[in-house]
Amino acid sequence: MSAPLNETQAPLLSAENVTRFYGTRLGCREVSFQLYPGEVLAVVGESGSGKTTLLNCLAARLSLSSGAVRYLMRDGVMRDLASLGEAERRFLMRTDWGFVHQNPSDGLRMNVSAGANVGERLMAVGQRHYGQIRGSALSWMERVEVPADRVDDSPRAFSGGMRQRLQIARNLVTAPRLVFMDEPTGGLDVSVQARLLDLIRALVAELDMAALIVTHDLAVARLLSHRIMVMKEGEVVEEGLTDRVLDDPREPYTQLLVSSILQA
Amino acid sequence: MSDPVQKPDTPYNFAYLDEQTKRMIRRAILKAVAIPGYQVPFASREMPMPYGWGTGGVQVTAAVIGPDDVLKVIDQGADDTTNAVSIRAFFAKTARVATTTRTEAATIIQTRHRVPEMPLTESQILVYQVPIPEPLRFLEPRETETRVMHALQEYGLMHVKLYEDIARHGHIATTYAYPVKVEGRYVMDPSPIPKFDNPKLTNSPALQLFGAGREKRIYALPPFTKVESLDFEDHPFEVQRFCEPCGLCGATGVYLDEVILDDKGGRMFVCSDSDYCEGRREEGHRGHLAGALAGAAEAGE
Lengths: 264, 301
Prior knowledge:
- The structure holds two protein chains of two kinds.
- Chain A is of the alpha/beta class.
- Chain A has two domains: about 180 residues, 3-Layer(aba) Sandwich (Rossmann fold), CATH 3.40.50.300; about 70 residues, no CATH class.
- In chain A, the strands form two sheets. Chain A has a six-stranded mixed sheet with strand order 6-7-8-3-9-10, with helices on both faces. A four-stranded antiparallel sheet of chain A has the order 2-1-4-5, covered by helices on one side.
- In chain B, strand 8 and strand 9 form a beta hairpin.
- In chain B, helix 1 crosses helix 2.
- By secondary structure, chain B is of the alpha/beta class.
- Chain B has two domains: about 210 residues, Rossmann fold (3-Layer(aba) Sandwich), CATH 3.40.50.11310; about 45 residues, no CATH class.
- The radius of gyration of chain B is 20 Å and the shape is globular.
């Protein structure tokens, strides 16, 4: 994808030397970058390279050992996430942010219907009109290509791909400006993956959201992201435009990653 | 605890619990009254009855009862079921208080799942027996999480439940333990009273105390507290309606129990509040089945 970067804009999210230790064990070390509105950044690397730790640190789901994450709030003020109160942080999470889990059952309420899953955020921000909530749920299910007649079914009755699409709808219903995705296509078969990637790409472009996608799959990164960060043992080893990094990897580790993709 | 000179006429301390325990429960009650709808943890004691029979209500009653109080106990509106009779006998024995079945004569009414039909007064205390005090329990199983949700007033999930009801049944199908919001702040489970009784909670002149023994929580509605039942704008809160009046006393606008009469589909509706029904019959009101079933109903009681 071509980069819609506009460097004159203020960054949406800014990470400064983000470091996280689990006791003495390293999670991630001194990661710094800036994410601009509408930009998609992929974090790639092998299992255990600290990708998910980094994502959780950025999304304020883990506390940092050192460093800071700042976010441009809707009122235009850049604020350190660590300085937000619990109430503000949770409000941010369910309005301005989305978080798509690798396993849909972590992000969905499996005991309530698909419509209630999509409508939950709306009810959480105070919508109290059943007809309107249901209308939004139906229109979002249509947008993520889940048949509208499944609106009253439990997500347990859904296939893996449908669950993942439902999880995306549930996150996007409040029009977030930033979505975190942890291996959104993990565990899906290839044809379902392709459709889901297509959908995410279309939605991100259409809604002008910024997205931070963690994946070990370089194909996903190539399809979705403008920029890419390669992580190894908790540190960023290479960073740049997606095409540049994948077509012309500079670091030996990135070269290894790129060359280990099976050529069809 | 007893007077060493005079031999006590009962082996129990007044109202069964020791004085320190009663003080502890009273402190919890005071806190609960100060923060309407907030669940106050307390060190619930083992009571000589099984959990689920009203151990929480009994402890609250024991903490607030005095020698001059008159106690009424109802179980699903009736004064004459095992639970009600046993708890009345318990306090008659351990506190030597007067008991009654008449709502207007009682100063403390311990109730399992009903609010009396007769309006309560400022001189009365209504004590509810609560099995599960947490309204969010079946939506969010983690206690740590539900506490944070109460603290931050994150009650969207409660509406998810009501949404599910409408999606499945076309209307809000929750008929008991219908969630309420207290003074615009805390969402509270009014214990499993029928939602028919929810409108009686708001602006009640009586003090309402809720005790959950197994879950170790006490909460309260002070007199004249605003209590709203949750709903949607296009699906407003409604109470149950009954298609016929009470078969014995002819009352309408009260909560009725369905009684199966035979195995051929015969049934009747009678007041769930047995004291209210008796009072009306004493005043001369007669339902359409009163004559035919007077003998059978008394035999059944």
